[in-house]
Amino acid sequence: MKLYISVDMEGITGLVDHTHVDTSKHNYERGRKIMTQEANFVIAKAFETGCQEVIVNDSHSKMNNLLIEDLHPETQLITGDVKPFSMVQGLDESFGGAIFVGYHSRASMSGVMSHSMIFGVRHMWINDVQIGELGFNAYVAGHYGVPVIMVAGDDGAAREAEALIPGITSAVVKQSISRSAAKSLTPVKAGELLSEKTEWAIKNLDKVKPLTPPENPVLRIEFANYGQAEWANLMPGTEIEEGTTIVRYQAKNILEAYQAMLVMTELAMRTTFS
C-alpha cells in the first residue's frame, strides 16, 4: 500500500503554545525535533506493517519544519511553501490511505492551539457541515477516494475526527487543559502509542470509508472582523453575507473550494488594526 501522511505541529506531543511552533521563538527547535521524531514513529510502523511507499507532507506554517536529515530514510518528504494544495499537497487517488499527525481542533473549539488556518477565522463550513483543517483535508482525500484512517493529536482533534469519520483511529498524545496548556505523554510513550495505533489503522483500513465531499460545494468562512471579510471578498466570485463577517463562495468541486479557502485566508491576513 501507498500511504500519505500530513504532519501539522500544534497537535504534537508536549507542544502547548506559540513558543513551540513559531520559528522566531526559543522553543521552536525543540518543537521541530519532537515533530520529526513523532512522524518517524508513524513512518517506521507503516513500513513494518506492509506499506511499500510512504509520502510525508510537512503541513505547518511555512511547511519547512521537519528535519529531513533525521527522517526515516525510505520516506519521501514534500516540504516548503507555496503549495497549491497546502496541507494535502501531493495527495491523489494512488494512495490507499491517509494519516494526519500533529493535528488540532478547529477554530472556536476547545483544544491546544485550536484554530482554522489563520487566527482570524472563527468558523468554516462546507454547505452545512462545520469544518476545520482536519475536515477540509479529509474532504480533499475523499475526493480522490482515499480514507483518512488515523489522526494523532490532542483530545480535541480526536473528538472532531471521530464525529466526521466513523471508524477512524485516534491517537491522543495530550489532553487539553486550556488553549495553551495540556497534560501530555512523554515522547517515548507517545511513540509507543503512535506505533500501536498506526499498525491497527493500517490493518483495519477497510473499516473506514472516504469522507465524500458534496458536489458543487458552498464554502463559507466567518472572520473575526469586517476588515478581514473585506480583504477576502476581493477574490472574484465571493460575497459577504449581509450583516455578518461571513464570506461565501460557490465552488465547482472541493478542490476549487480548498484553493478558494487558501486565497481568502491569505488575503484576510493582510488586515491591519491601526
TrEMBL record:
Keywords: Aminopeptidase, Hydrolase, Metal-binding, Protease, Zinc. Transmembrane segments: none annotated. It comes from the Bacteria. InterPro entries: DppA_N, Peptidase_M55, Peptidase_M55_sf. This is D-aminopeptidase. Zn(2+) 2 binds at D8, H60, H104, E133. Its EC number is 3.4.11.-. The keyword Zinc applies. The active site is at H115 (nucleophile). Signal peptide: none annotated. Zn(2+) 1 binds at D8, E10. GO terms for molecular function: aminopeptidase activity; metal ion binding.
